[in-house]
Every structure is written in structure tokens, then in C-alpha cells.
Amino acid sequence: MSQTETVSPLHALYTRRSVKFLRGPAPKPEELDQILQAGMSAPDHGALRPWRFKIIRGEAIGKLADMALDAVKRSGDPRMTPEKEKSVREWMAGVPLFLALAAKIDHNSKVQEQEQVIAAGTAVMNVLNAVHMLGYGAFWSTGLGTYVEEVQEKLGFDSLDHRFLGFLAIGTPACAVPKIERPDFRDFTSEWTGA
User: Which helix (H) or strand (E) holds 13?
Assistant: First the structure.
């Protein structure tokens, strides 16, 4: 889908897919504003607005790579081999924009923590859809130390009050995005009749 192509909203939802390999350009500042504003329309029990986004771009991406990959290695994760680190650094170097994602938990609210995290997740989904509708690509990654407390702390999401949800990589698809065959909703749906 090109940035000038007009499609129906449902078509846009049906054709959205994750795009890992990205390059510049990133969304323009006014487009990024629209993308982030789309997140504000998420369903949100109690109007807590638990979603938190941290924009990471330019030289900060290299600093993120250093910080996150070093923290993962210090955590003892055996999957962070030198080859894996090299490949992650190369991938990150091509991505023009990252959003760090978190749910800020209101421990004094009657709204269950799970609902607050779900609200943040739906805000991220709105962001992903807006990225796609504007003709860009995105990839939600829980790599880069999402489950290493040091990473979320250094991003400013203290672990007592936040549940860290990972990163969105955002940019222009680096190659053609093949269509994907989606499953039929009927395979995942049943009707309850009260019996």
C-alpha cells in the first residue's frame, strides 16, 4: 500500500501485517503525531490511560542497542551469542524509529491490573493500524531485553509501577511485503446459546 493509496478502513485492517525489515524514511513529525493520537482511542476501563510510549530515534537508537544488548548479556541469557548480537545491531541500525511501550499500573484503582495492561495493548494495536494506514511498516518486538528489568528501568519505566511491553520498530518496508493468508474467523468462533 502506498502512502497515497486510498483503501477502506476494513481493507486496511485485513491487510496489516508485521514488517521486521525497515528503513527510512520514518513517519514525518505530523504523521507520528497522528499515529500516537490513534493510540488514545483505545478502550480504557476507568479512563486510566495506562499506555506509555517513549520515542527513540537518531543517535539514541545506537545507545538503545548498546544499553539493551549489554543488559541482556549481563542477565546471562544464553541466546545472546556474538552472532545474534551482530544481527540485532545490524537490524536496529536500519530502523529509523522505535517506540518503547509500557503499561503504567494504577495500584489504587478498582480496575484490575490485567485490564490496564490490555488497555495499553489495544493502544499499541491502534498505533500499529495507524502506521499501516499511513503506508509505513511496523514490527512489535519483545526482544531487546523486554524481560530484563534493567532495560525497562533505564528507559524510565520503573518495574513497580510499569509492565514493559517491548518495542515497536517503525519505518518504510525495506522490501515488498508479501500478502499473507489469514485464517477463517469461523475456526476460532462459536456461538453460546445458553444451553
Answer: helix 9-15
Provide the annotated binding site for FMN. 16-18, 45, 140-142
For residue 81, give the C-alpha cell.
551469542
Which segments in the chain show pLDDT lower than 50? 1-4
Cell of 41: 482511542
CATH level 3 topology of 17-175: NADH Oxidase (3.40.109)
How many helices (H) and strands (E) the chain has is answered by 6, 5
The confidence score (pLDDT) of residue 1 equals 47
Query: pTM of this prediction?
Result: 0.93
Question: Where are the alpha helices (H) located in 40-180, listed in sequence order?
Answer: 59-74, 82-94, 113-133, 149-154
Q: DSSP per residue over 109-147, as a string? A: SSS-HHHHHHHHHHHHHHHHHHHHHTT-EEEEE-TTTTT
> Running DSSP on this structure, what letter comes out for residue 187?
G
Say if CB 141 and CB 166 are below 8 A apart.
Answer: yes
Q: What is the pLDDT of residue 8?
A: 86
Q: How far apart are the first and last CA of the chain?
A: 46
Helices 29-39, 113-133: axis angle to 10 degrees equals 140
Main-chain dihedrals φ then ψ at residue 129, nearest 5 degrees: -65, -40
Report the half-sphere exposure of 72 (CA within 13 A, side-chain side): 21
Domain ranges of the chain: 17-175
Binding residues: 16-18, 45, 140-142
